[in-house]
Design brief:
Layout (H helix, E strand, L loop, with lengths): L1 E5 L6 H10 L3 E6 L11 E4 L5 H8 L6 E4 L5 H11 L5 E5 L13 E2 L11 H20 L3 E5 L3 E2 L14 H7 L4 E4 L5 E2 L2 E2 H11 L8 E4 L6 E2 H12 L5 E4 L1 H7 L4 H8 L4 E2 L2 H6 L9 H13 L9 H17 L2
Parallel strand pairs: 1-2, 1-4, 2-3, 4-5, 5-7, 6-15, 7-12, 8-11, 9-14
Antiparallel strand pairs: 10-13
Helix pairs in contact: 1-6, 3-4, 7-11, 8-9
The structure holds NADP nicotinamide-adenine-dinucleotide phosphate.
NADP nicotinamide-adenine-dinucleotide phosphate binds next to loops.
């Protein structure tokens, strides 16, 4: 099977790319080539996906059985992909987001039949609009789409709600004994999934024509509280977390840029029913407990100082929220 991944070297997708090569896929990765993730055995195509002429030049007359777009966010990205891949592919996979599921949830247990509705977060509404456009193309043109909705997935990133997504900032704060913010009282339920587990479920869907016109989430069955997530990270670092609980509503007021991600996603208790992916991919079930997975993540950071980027603006924003909250109760 010959596959094209648009992106393919990111937080989730790098693990999937490596496993795809190991499973024998002929894999092409199209990206700008700025990421350092190494995927030996893949073929690199260099182009900015937002520059159609460069993309066509990079793709030449290559044909693919499967195309996965890891970095489509808005309907115009989908129109571009339809124009590029409408003819010839046997499967196109759109990476959506589990944040698209109904908020507030009517039921804590999410299945693929849970309605898609998110009045709080534009990112999620855009993903919903992408899904709707693709399902229309499936119905009207037989476009062979499969939709995958990752929930919070980690490997070379810390799975956190606040603290500098994609950076080492939160770990650095914990090691320095500085306070960290946990939204709410930290007791809401959340699921984090190691990218290797996601990859095994995901790759099981490629080339399966039963998956066309279908949507899936692929998550761990381990359910944690947010307190437990931050405490487990701290334990793995060998320190105690100095947690300050702050209501999500308050954080959203003093830091409006966090409102969508908190009120449209991480504030709510969410647990996933993975029956559907298990039915499609025999033998699938996540096997990496967070306690072990986070140690792998921290070992990856520990191996190279260049990976341990601390985001000064994320740090300053956390301090600003903490100070405002302390003042409010002074
Ligand atoms: N991580 C999560 O917890 C989570 C949860 C829900 C949904 N998702 C979804 O998962 C997807 C992100 O996956 P990811 O975390 O693996 O990716 P990512 O970390 O966002 O990585 C982005 C990838 O795309 C490439 N890229 C970025 N801009 C590009 C451009 N203009 N042209 C060509 N290539 C470009 C990057 O390489 P270069 O920089 O070299 O171009 C890299 O390979 C998104 O659709 C997101 O909505 C993620």
């Amino acid at each position: 099977m010959r596959a094209l991944f648009i992106g393919g070297t990111g937080f989730i997708s790098a693990a999937v790319s490596r496993m795809a090569v190991a499973q024998g896929l002929e894999l092409y990765l199209l990206n700008r080539g700025t990421r350092t993730a190494d995927v030996p055995g893949s073929h690199a195509l260099t182009a900015d996906i937002h520059r159609p002429d460069d993309v066509r030049a990079a793709l030449k007359d290559l044909e693919f059985d499967v195309v996965v777009d890891w970095i489509a966010y808005v309907p115009r990205d989908i129109e571009r992909d339809l124009a590029l891949f409408r003819h010839g592919v046997t499967q196109y996979v759109f990476i959506s987001s589990a944040s698209a599921y109904q908020k507030p949830p009517a039921d804590y247990l999410i299945t693929e039949a849970t309605p898609l509705h998110n009045p709080y977060w534009q990112y999620s509404r855009d993903k919903i609009a992408c899904e709707e456009r693709l399902m229309r193309a499936y119905r009207e043109e037989g476009f062979p789409v499969t939709i995958v909705r990752p929930s919070m997935t980690y490997d070379t990133n810390l799975p956190i709600a606040l603290g500098g997504w994609g950076t080492y900032t939160l770990a650095d704060r914990l090691l320095a004994g500085r306070p960290i913010i946990v939204h709410g009282d930290g007791s809401s339920l959340w699921v984090v999934t190691h990218a290797d587990d996601f990859a095994r479920g995901f790759l099981g869907l490629l080339g399966d024509d039963r998956a066309l016109g279908q949507a899936f989430h692929i998550t761990s069955d381990e359910v944690l509280t947010w307190n437990r997530i931050y405490e487990t990270i701290a334990e793995a670092l060998g320190v105690e977390a100095r947690i300050v609980h702050i209501p999500s509503d308050y954080i959203a007021q003093v830091a409006p840029e966090m409102a969508g991600s908190l009120l449209g996603d991480k504030t709510w208790s969410v647990v996933f029913d993975n029956s559907k992916i298990k039915a499609f991919v025999p033998g699938f079930g996540a096997v990496v407990p967070f306690r072990d997975g986070i140690r792998r993540t921290l070992a990856w950071f520990a191996a190279d100082a260049g990976r341990r980027h601390v985001d000064a603006s994320a740090n300053a924003e956390m301090d600003r929220i903490l100070e405002a909250y302390a003042r409010a109760f002074a």
